[in-house]
Amino acid sequence: MRVRKKAMVTGGAGYIGSHVTWALLEAGWDVVVIDDLSTGRRESVAAAAAFILGDVGEPVTINAALAEHRPDAVLHLAGSAIIPESVIDPLKYYRNNTAASRTLIEATVNAGIDAFLFSSTAAIYGVPPRMPIDEDMPTQPITPYGTSKLCTEFILRDVAAATSMRYVSLRYFNVAGADPKGRTGQSTPISTHLIKIACETIVGKRSFFNICGDDYPTPDGTCIRDYLHVSDLADLHVTAIEYLVAGGASEAFNCGYGHGYSVAEVANVIRQVAGGHIDARIAPRRPGDPPQLVADARKIRRQFGWQPKYDDLRFIVETALAWERWLQARAA
Ligand SMILES: NC(=O)c1ccc[n+]([C@@H]2O[C@H](COP(=O)([O-])OP(=O)(O)OC[C@H]3O[C@@H](n4cnc5c(N)ncnc54)[C@H](O)[C@@H]3O)[C@@H](O)[C@H]2O)c1
Ligand SMILES: O=c1ccn([C@@H]2O[C@H](COP(=O)(O)OP(=O)(O)O[C@H]3O[C@H](CO)[C@H](O)[C@H](O)[C@H]3O)[C@@H](O)[C@H]2O)c(=O)[nH]1
């Protein structure tokens, strides 16, 4: 009989998935990662985890992986995650976020695995009527990315009603920073995330970064987001999957700290951490950006007694920068 629980982490070679893999291993889980390396890196996967190179949207591959490893739980992080790209190429998002998830969910149910965690997003709320955003607010995504993720939430809701599978949907707000122990970080070669791009500017990979829009209906005109340290989020995955494996009911949770910073405020922290001049230029709005997204985080705090460890924008930027410096030194 197996004593240690085993988790399958899809997308475990990616930014968030590599942190989740470390958090599960530290909590005593065995981990098998499946990833097609479309945006992830094989080196990001902790050596103690098993690795399968494959597409979760391929039924033959995923059925074989589940049959071989027989995990107790599936944590589904694989997906495409760039909002502006989804506006330009929506079919890619419906294929890789919705259709591939459907295939994986079907394989999970057929394998008799009852615990499923899904990486959802604040983008399912679109432009919410008020702030902060609680889980019962209307879901009216304004981008194909958000809709592609919401479709998967609907599949999960209906499958959970019809089978013994239970799921937790974690609706991430803006994930940033890197492992404080320096083991992994955001390594995607083509970045669109603000803090990553700003750190690339600090290390000289770029000469400037853009502040995309200064005419939003916010106090300083720039967009407000709830930036959450990736290691706090990774710990939440362990908590949520242990809850499900122990028989917890299906739930959706917003994952954020419950307060936001504007892009201009982030730029100021970037300048402080850089300790010198950083060129941040006002640029036009980016398509698909709501003015403000801040989580009402009371539900997840209440359910799990969650106490974040890294709710500090400066620390988030410092860890992201340390990782960017490591990447640069490695490339040199
Ligand atoms: N980064 C954020 O701020 C954020 C916010 C909300 C939700 N999310 C969600 O979190 C998840 C992880 O995002 P991330 O920022 O780590 O992105 P990422 O691109 O670094 O990671 C995604 C991983 O999934 C893999 N992958 C993609 N499609 C696959 C497929 N069909 N089969 C197997 N592997 C596949 C990629 O190779 C990569 O390793 C995504 O589902 C994303 O939508 C991210
Ligand atoms: O070079 C840049 C990049 C971004 N921004 C701005 O910074 C803010 C944050 O943008 P990110 O690209 O870092 O993140 P998004 O808010 O677009 O999206 C992220 O957070 C969302 C929820 O808030 C979803 O979860 C999504 O998956 C995830 O990528 C936005 O106002 C954006 O316009 C800039 O000003 N300059």
UniProtKB/TrEMBL annotation:
Domain NAD-dependent epimerase/dehydratase: from-to ranges: 8-256
Reaction it catalyzes: UDP-alpha-D-glucose = UDP-alpha-D-galactose
Enzyme nomenclature, EC number: 5.1.3.2
Highest taxon of source: Bacteria
Pfam annotation, one family: Epimerase
CDD domains, A to Z: UDP_G4E_1_SDR_e (cd05247)
Broad class of enzyme this protein falls into: isomerase
GO BP term, example: galactose catabolic process via UDP-galactose, Leloir pathway
Keywords, alphabetical: Carbohydrate metabolism, Isomerase, NAD
Family statement: Belongs to the NAD(P)-dependent epimerase/dehydratase family.
Subunit structure and binding partners: Homodimer.
Official protein name in the record: UDP-glucose 4-epimerase
Organism whose genome encodes this protein: Defluviicoccus vanus
